[in-house]
Design a protein that fits this description.
Elements (H helix, E strand, L loop, with lengths): L3 H7 L7 H13 L6 E5 L10 E5 L11 E10 L3 E3 L2 E6 L3 H7 L7 E7 L8 E6 L2 H6 L7 E6 L3 E2 L3 H23 L4 E2 L1 H24 L4 H25 L6 E2 H9 L5 H13 L9 H23 L16 H15 L13 E11 L2 E10 L9 E6 L9 E12 L2 E13 L3 H10 L11 H13 L3 H5 L3 H11 L7 H13 L8 H9 L3 H7 L8 E3 L2 E4 L3 H5 L17 H7 L2 H20 L4 E2 L6 H9 L3 H5 L4 E4 L2 E4 H17 L7 H11 L7 H9 L6 E6 L5 H11 L5 E5 L2 H10 L6 E5 H6 L8 E4 L7 H10 L5 E6 L12 H8 L6 E4 L8 H11 L5 H7 L4 E2 L14 E5 L8 H11 L6 E3 L2 E3 L4 E4 L13 E10 L2 E8 L5 H6 L3 E6 L2 E9 L10 H7 L4 E3 L2 E3 H4 L4 E7 L10 H8 L2 E8 L2 H14 L4 H10 L2
Parallel strand pairs: 3-6, 14-16, 22-26, 22-27, 23-24, 23-25, 25-26, 28-40, 29-38, 29-39, 39-40
Antiparallel strand pairs: 1-2, 2-3, 4-5, 5-8, 6-7, 7-9, 10-11, 12-13, 13-14, 15-16, 17-18, 19-21, 20-21, 30-31, 32-33, 32-37, 33-34, 34-36, 35-36
Helix pairs in contact: 1-3, 6-7, 7-8, 7-9, 7-10, 8-9, 21-22, 24-30, 24-31, 25-26
């Protein structure tokens, strides 16, 4: 309700001064914006208390129809002060904000203040949007208020500044257009309860009737969606009234929900429902929306019960979430284990984790969470993960520390334990905060001992906010929070940093570097900060105010179509974060590009028929939004000859293939004799006719040799033979992953004349020496961008050997060149496919591999008859394997059949020794392990197998004795900081220690301590299919539950089954097997793009 104080101000006439008239005259001339702003200003004394209006058009070149009218008040003044980067002005009459307060659903209001308006050349213009939140924050019982302007709120007399102002007006229009549609009627508490109970009754009835009429989940979802808007309105109002004991409008309740991290979901829920509006989603889309909104409904039910003692949505659990019986039984088992733990607030452990994945599940009207936690820190890897369970909704992007209790469960007769979180807190690694300071050109040395650090962490824990939420708070709330955090802190080092971040990089900022800084604050990872900092590869700064490298320019320019260094630009999961840091209008403009990109990745096709994915108008609007740099980088959508495609994708593909074609047409007849001599001298080694033929023809008519082949066909062996043919020549071996690089280093005989580097290191190097031959392994995972860089660095006289398997897991970024090269490079001796498998002599396994590889029609029959290779998921999965060298392959870490739980089950069944706990991990004698990348122990390369022999734990360290699957000398062990123990058959027995993190060590030893505190291996009873690429085992079990069905691609499945040397068993249901196998035939890459490329290459 509008108070009497507000009404009094509304009825007041604001007196105008000569300064105000001068300000109006000056502003009319200042706001010239090429047709975007049409002003109608005046300064006569009148009611209402406004100085006219202006019309705003965001893009007059497309349409001159006004998108929004703005009310304005224009004040001229000589009385102001500048303090702490702000201009402070006393508004002596509240008539204008009171008028906006009483008419918040009309046109938005802008307050302009012109300083020194009658002093030519000294005038400055500042502006303030009269948002609903701002006008509600004013105390109308007083006669005036203080208005603070950031320096970003100044409108300078330049085209650039006017354009920035217009850009901000676009955001105001977007926000106000939504807020103004919200119902301004004020509701009483009883009215809200009536609305909520009526909505609940109708939704409950729909759910009950769906069982009677046998409706599909999509039909039921469509019926419920129509009722959710009123339910959400009631929840918004209820939430606001629980803290403000007065009548409340929906408009104000919506903004009120935004201010609390616990209730933000209500604001997002309403905005999502408003976006849907009265549209009827297409078939299959309603249930997708409902799976998202189900959790919102559950939260509303919980809030209604706890805050208002209202029982609603009592049969929500009957909504078909499609959880199969196995999962439901497991969730009930977990829920009972969680409930058995007494929730006490223990001191949390020192280890920091990120919440990698959070999955909610529901049992008996209670909500629980399964969390996959990933070890935080630059010395940790993505494979250092654990699974925990809790009823607490841990909502933070930042690293956390947890307290937990073990709780017993029994699965298929195996006693096991799970970790139940009893307490947690946000705990950012202090070095992250110091590195943010460094980026802003400040020097701080914050540690976890500082009171200011702990108070900031407590605030982030209590509110669920992150630093981006904090700096985006309105000024009043921001300084209130900051004052509370630093009220009794002994130091205030980071306070200045937070103020600087808010002043320069809050939501409405237009300063260069905004997108990068805001993304860092949203995803506060030390490795992310290090990747964007100025470094030796990218020594220039994006701007003089920031220590961020110019390699971040593409992301800063348009984060929706470009990525930060070392980040995946096609990862859809990042888009929600980008929406938060970016601009909705920019996202809409980028949408055509994203549609073509997504379809390219999904289908493998590069060319799409015009007007099937995007319209000609959408293509034009997107291309017009690109700057010249983005256009040169190939970000344009090209529409030509009836097709639409991404320019960069075609350009890089053609560049790579043209170069390979050119190399394939060079004659080198001298190699005919060299090759024949090598074959003659090594006749005893050559047991594969295909390899012998490849060696015979190598480089005779081509300077390039493409080697294709399935796992175990001997691609590396052939590369070694070629290396030996080129003995005494300078050779470079490249691979993308450290695993593949280490494998080459072990398998290549001619070490003296060979260098080994990662593809990233080579592609980013500025100076490259000439090599006689360059070998590149794992070509199928090298994307087009890096391959283009690599091939442009290779000299004309260099021989090029490329090896890989196009049927295994493909490149993370766009990479199609190696697939197309197979069909385009046809010179005799330039292209070989190895087909004889040397990994196994099991003919049934080989037959199955070939059937799957070629997507032939008898996959199901060979699965059922030859093995049988398939089995239903059950207790046999946990039976002891007959082979020591065995593994379970999983697609993900979480879930009943995720690798964390699989490792837990098998470890509990291991009776070789007592369990030893170190931090959040448990180890036993006999545990199989895989090493991860380790800076501390260079010889223990990624994916090296091992088995724990002995464990000794004392207070400050744990020592492992391990048999590793490689022969190392004492000298090699000493060089890698590990202790040689003994040679044991084909293994080397080694010893090393891991130390507890010591917070009291000197500052110059912190990095060393952090490295020594990380366990360099992971348990490997079970590993992920991606991690297993390049490995082989005697016995392989693959678990594919129904919930993972959609994620099993042909490449992932083929990679998994080809890890086995002797025994293979796939655990899945008959229905899952049918769906997966059927999809293989539909996944086959079409030939449309290949034929178009051939024509463009004139083949």
């Amino acid at each position: 309700m509008v108070s009497d104080a507000v009404i009094k101000h509304i009825k007041t006439h604001t007196e105008r001064s000569s300064d105000d008239q001068a300000a109006v005259d000056f502003l009319k001339n200042q706001l010239k914006s090429h047709g975007k702003i049409t002003s109608d200003f005046t300064a006569v004394d009148k009611w209402p208390n406004i100085d006219g209006r202006f019309e705003f058009v965001s893009n007059p070149d497309i349409s001159r129809r006004p998108e929004q009218n703005f009310f304005v008040q224009i004040k001229g003044t000589h009385y102001y002060e500048e303090r702490n980067g702000k201009l402070i002005y006393q508004l002596k009459d509240l008539a204008f904000p009171a008028f906006i307060y009483g008419a918040v659903t009309l046109d938005p209001g802008i307050l302009f203040v012109v300083t020194d308006p009658d002093e030519r050349g000294e005038e400055r213009v500042f502006w303030k949007y009269m948002s609903a939140e701002y006008v509600h924050s004013i105390d109308y019982n007083k006669g005036s208020c203080t208005v603070k302007f950031d320096m970003e709120d100044e409108i300078k007399n330049t085209d650039e500044s006017i354009d920035k102002f217009c850009k901000k007006l676009e955001e105001v229009v977007e926000q106000h257009s939504f807020v103004s549609r919200l119902d301004k009627k004020e509701y009483s508490s009883q009215e809200i309860q009536n609305i909520m109970e009526e909505c609940s009754s109708r939704i409950t009835e729909r759910i009950e009737q769906s069982e009677i009429y046998n409706e599909t989940r999509d039909d039921l979802s469509r019926n419920i969606l129509r009722l959710l808007k009123e339910l959400c309105i009631a929840a918004l109002l209820m939430n606001a009234l629980s803290s403000k004991n007065e009548e409340m409008s929906v408009q104000l309740a919506w903004e009120y929900a935004l201010l609390d991290i616990e209730t933000k979901y209500l604001a997002y829920f309403y905005k999502g429902l408003d976006y849907i509006g009265y549209h009827t989603p297409e078939t299959g889309q309603s249930e997708r929306l409902m799976l998202k909104y189900y959790d919102f409904m559950w939260k509303i039910r919980e809030m209604a019960n706890k805050k208002f003692n209202i029982e609603i949505l009592n049969n929500l659990e009957k909504f078909p979430l499609v959880i199969n019986q196995l999962d439901q039984e497991y969730y009930e088992l977990i829920a009972a284990a969680v409930e058995s733990v007494e929730i006490t607030h223990h001191l949390v452990n020192i280890t920091r984790f990120y919440v990698h994945k959070k999955t909610a599940f529901y049992v008996n009207q209670e909500r629980y969470f399964e969390l996959t936690l990933q070890l935080a820190g630059v010395y940790a890897t993505k494979f250092n993960r654990i699974t925990v369970y809790t009823k607490q909704d841990i909502s933070t992007n930042y690293s956390i520390q947890i307290a937990y209790s073990d709780s017993a469960i029994n699965l298929w007769g195996v006693d096991s334990t799970i970790k139940v979180v009893t307490d947690w807190k946000v705990s950012i690694e202090p070095s992250c905060l110091n590195k943010i300071s460094k980026i802003l050109h400040y020097q701080t040395k914050i540690s976890s001992k500082y009171r200011e650090y702990n108070k900031l962490m407590n605030f982030l824990t209590k509110t669920g906010m992150n630093l981006l939420d904090l700096i985006d708070l309105k000024e009043i709330n921001f300084y209130k929070v900051i004052d509370e955090i630093y009220e009794d802190a002994n130091t205030k080092y980071f306070k200045e940093i937070l103020q600087e971040l808010r002043n320069r990089y809050s939501e409405n900022s237009r300063i260069k570097g905004k997108h990068v800084v805001r993304y860092i604050l949203l995803n506060l990872r030390e490795e992310l900060i290090e990747s964007v900092e100025v470094n030796r590869y990218s020594p220039k700064s994006l701007s003089k105010e920031l220590g961020i490298s110019t390699s971040c320019y593409p992301f800063e320019s348009n984060p929706y179509i470009s990525s930060l260094p070392d980040c995946n630009s096609i990862d859809k999961s990042r888009r929600n974060a980008l929406i938060r840091i970016g601009n909705k209008n920019d996202l809409e403009r980028a949408f055509p590009y994203l549609k073509v990109q997504d379809e390219t990745i999904r289908t493998g096709e590069m060319y799409f028929e015009e007007n099937t994915l995007v319209t000609e108008e959408e293509v034009k609007l997107f291309n017009d939004s690109l700057d010249s740099w983005e256009q040169r980088q190939g970000k344009c959508l090209v529409q030509k000859e009836g097709y639409v495609y991404i320019d960069f994708y075609e350009r890089t593909t053609l560049t790579i293939l043209k170069r390979l074609l050119k190399l394939s047409r060079f004659s080198n007849k001298e190699y005919r004799l060299i090759n024949q001599r090598f074959i003659k001298d090594n006749k005893d080694l050559l047991k594969d006719e295909i390899k012998e033929q490849a060696l015979k023809n190598a480089f005779v008519k081509s300077k390039v040799l493409l080697i294709y082949g399935a796992a175990g066909t001997g691609k590396t062996t052939l590369m070694n033979y070629i290396s030996n043919i080129l003995e005494n020549r300078q050779k470079l071996f490249l691979a993308k992953t450290h695993t593949a690089l280490k494998n080459l280093m072990r398998r290549i005989d001619d070490q003296e004349n060979s260098e080994f580097r990662s593809t990233k290191s080579f592609s980013e190097s500025r100076q490259v020496k000439e090599y006689d031959a360059i070998f590149i392994d794992e070509c199928s995972v090298i994307d087009n961008r890096n391959m283009e860089k690599i091939i442009n660095k290779i000299g004309e006289n260099t021989l090029l050997i490329l090896a890989g398997d196009i049927h295994q897991i493909e490149a993370i970024e766009f990479g199609n060149w190696f697939y197309y090269a197979k069909n385009i490079i046809n010179t005799k001796g330039a292209n070989v496919e190895l087909s004889n498998t040397w990994r196994t002599d099991n003919k049934k396994l080989i037959s199955l591999w070939n059937e799957v590889r070629e997507r032939k029609p008898l996959i199901t029959e060979k699965m059922a008859i030859d093995g049988p290779f398939s089995e239903k998921i059950g207790s046999s999965l946990l039976m002891e394997d007959e082979y020591k060298d065995h593994v379970v392959l999983c697609l993900n870490y979480d879930g009943k059949f995720g690798l964390n739980n699989m490792n837990n089950y098998f470890q509990c069944a291991n009776d070789k020794g007592k369990a030893v706990t170190w931090e959040e991990w448990t180890y036993k004698k006999g545990d199989p392990i895989l090493f991860n990348d380790s800076k501390r122990f260079p010889a223990l390369y990624n994916n090296l197998k091992g088995w724990i022999v002995e464990i000794e734990k004392i207070k400050e360290k744990i020592t492992f004795v391990i048999d590793i699957d490689i022969k190392l000398t004492k000298e090699e062990c000493r060089a890698s900081n590990i202790e040689f123990v003994a040679d044991v058959e084909k293994y080397t027995r080694i010893r090393f220690s891991i130390f507890k993190y010591d917070y009291n060590i000197p500052e110059d030893r912190i990095e060393e301590m952090r490295m020594k505190a990380v366990v360099p291996f992971q348990l490997a009873y079970a590993v992920s299919i991606h991690k297993a690429q390049g490995l082989e085992y005697d016995s392989v079990k693959i678990v594919i539950p129904d919930s993972n069905l959609e994620r099993i691609t042909h490449g992932i499945f083929y990679t998994a089954i080809t890890r086995a040397k002797k025994k293979l068993k796939i655990y899945w249901s008959a229905e899952t097997m049918k769906s997966v196998v059927n999809r293989f035939s539909m996944e086959g890459v079409e030939n449309r793009s290949l034929e178009i490329i051939k024509k463009k290459l004139i083949i």
